[in-house]
Amino acid sequence: MNTAKESKLRYIIQENLPDPIFTFLDRRWWSEKTGHEYVERLAFPEEVDSLKVTLGGNYFAACCFAAVLKYVEVELQRSFTAHSLRIRFEPSQGSMTIDLATIVSLELIQNLQNAKSKESLFGLLNKTLTPMGARLLRASILQPSTERVKLTARYNAVEDLATKEDMFVSVRQALKGFIDADKVLTAIILVPTKRTIQYVEQSVNNVIMLKTYVSAIKSIFQALGAAQSDLLLTIREVDPTPLWCFTQSN
After folding, report:
1. Which end of the chain is more exposed for a tag (fewer CB within 10 A), N or C?
2. For the CA atoms of 153, 159, 165, 167, what is the dihedral angle to 10 degrees?
3. What are the DNA mismatch repair protein MutS core domain coordinates in residue numbering (predicted)?
């Protein structure tokens, strides 16, 4: 008997989201042990121990992590390359939680009258030039940080860019060359159960796109030459030279 079909959670989702699509998973997929096994197999080697300690005190997070990856493997017939995932546990502390009713009524993401309109907070603020930037902005609106140190660092970075027009223009120009790195990297490490000619051809395209992305990083490094704020300096510390030399040799 699948009790999830009549659960309170399902009812709440149906009440708040239009025409949701449900996929029901077997209870055995929600396994804490399996979650830890996935961490050992997929996380970066140097991060495995700390992640296991963190998950040790978060039973439900480990179970949900296992269920999601099992769904990818079984239903989508995809698997991740070993030690290819940057896995992070982000607790709710340090951020503000906004309920769905507030998100809708304040038009934080979508206009109430016209779903395609840009007259929402996200639409008005979205001057981003990359898909990653748009996703980060959306996440920051839906779950804004409450950490003073993090907010101060962001304010200082904004001031740094606002008071140095040449640097600001150079950074925006450099960002125009960025591809959707998240999408490409995911495509590279996500391997289908059965490899086809189309997959091989797309893999070649992904490598070419990745090379383009690495080349664009050098432009950002150069554009931030006059940066003084801690956050922008941290970004600039990611020296692209080794990656650049690697792509040039290939």
Report:
1. N
2. -10
3. 101-217
Residues β-bridged to residue 78: 192
| Domain map (residue ranges) of the chain | 3-80, 94-146, 148-250
CA distance 60 to 30: 9
Burial class (CB in 10 A: 0-12, 13-18, 19+), 218: middle
Euclidean distance between the first and the last CA atom of the chain, given in angstroms as a whole number? 56
The residue type of 216 is A
Question: What separation in angstroms does the CA of 21 have from each of 10, 13, 24, 26, 200?
Answer: 11, 10, 10, 17, 31
Tens digits of per-residue pLDDT, 180-221?
888 888 888 888 877 788 888 888 888 888 888 888 888 888
| Cβ proximity of 178 and 133 under 8 Å | no
